[in-house]
Input
Amino acid sequence: MTIDEMIERLTDYRDELGGHIEIRLMTQQNWPFENRIEGLASTEEIVLAEDDPDEEHDPDDGEFVYIVEGGQLGYGTKRAWDAAY
Output
């Protein structure tokens, strides 16, 4: 999923449900868990946070934005994968 695709989907949800709805992360399809989201981190931000400032990110590895899990809230549901598009 790209940033533009995610923004489009989130905009649709905001229009339908409102902007106050919490976003959670569903992980592990075979044994689902609900997780809160700690935040976001780009590849560049991760490289800048590394202990070794001389270690550089190889741009050929790609640039990504990660959704960072902030802790398990409880069990999830396998139906989330059926509903996702």
User: Anything to note?
Assistant: The mean pLDDT is 91. Strands lie at 24-27, 33-42, 65-75. Helices lie at 3-17, 43-49, 79-83. The longest strand covers residues 65-75.
